[in-house]
Predict the 3D structure of the following.
Amino acid sequence: MNIININDTSNKLFYIGGVVRDELLNKQSIDIDITYVGNAIEYCSKFGEVIQINPDFGTVRVKITTNPLPNFSHSHSDNGEILPSAQSTDRVTRIASALRFPLSHKERGLNVIVDFASTRSESYPKKGHLPVVDKIGCSLKEDVLRRDFTINALAKSVTTGEIVDYVGGLKDLKNKKLRVLHDNSFIDDPTRIIRGLKFAMRFNFELEEHTKKLQDEYLKNINYDMSYKRIKKELIETFNAPLSNITKEYKKQRTFEKFINEKIYKLVTPNDVEIPSINIEELIEKYCLDIDCHVANTPRNDEHIWLIYVGVLKDLSRLPLTKIEQKILDDVPQNILNSDFELYKTFENTKIETILLYAILKDQKGAKHYLDNLRNIKISINGKDLQNLGISPSPQYQEIFDEVLKAKLQNPKMTKEDELKIAKSYSSC
């Protein structure tokens, strides 16, 4: 983070969490969190346009119109803290410019959106569900102690660049270990198990020995009274991760295998699950690139890729699925499809995710045959062509089209004239 130096004697602005971890690991950060030690809502009310406030969590969103960086005008509070001036570019604008928009001095008038969080402490009155905020404006140490792993509990002063480490996160980063901050971490929030999987695979880390023991104990004696909306969110983030945002070493097939072998899937279903013989990642890479948003060398944005991995669990009844997600699962044939025509008619208007699930769960050979050889075959004739043959509109039209399709699936090089001959012959019979 090459941040413009900010003359802030208060030293109350900190980067916390993943952005600090990623900088120390020399990784590109997806998300940047800025925390104010104290009440960020009160702090941000002194300048800019506050466009959104969440008083329950002490978060605030500020819109600022950028100005040239030189010639700052600041006032001072009684305790020496430098307060931003509403008439000039303030320190938050400078942060925003450096973080979100690397502006030249000539650029001005751009609206910059900056999110700030207050330091806060939390507790879990009901295990496995959302925490409640106990205090807004707590100390920095109290704030970092609510985090999931030590490597995500590091803070960096925006002002000085100093790293603040209360929990041994720097040592764990060096040793490539994931360590929870206390023994009830997974009990309080089981989604941390999935996040641990994601971080372990993304950074090639391992669970620290005691943390691994805590995870195994929880999965062995699991309590299914938890927030499955949050479980689903973590599964999506784990298996939908855009390739551009993760390291080349990160393989979702390896992540999936670890998900099964370490029985992390038990968070979703108590049923035993085995790893399919097919490499799911290779299957997705081969057949999903032709979806509109799946363009080679661009981030994958399709929201249902995760369902191909998680769908192998079969029992997803606990997850809050959308109608589309449920349809993807429901459309998977229960039996193996035995003919080209049956394959074609079943998958003709079916999402690619359903077809790949069929390949994984039922028939890899049949699904690949459809995707490689059948799905682009189309008959040329239509209802108007049948009328020109003297065939009156009737339910027989569909029978004729099906007979023509059966023939073309066997001989894709058929011409329109060949199709018309079959149609005329079938109608005569």
Remarks:
- DSSP finds 19 helices and 13 strands in the chain.
- Residues 1-8, 67-109, 243-247, 291-301 have pLDDT under 50 and may be disordered.
- The radius of gyration is 29 Å.
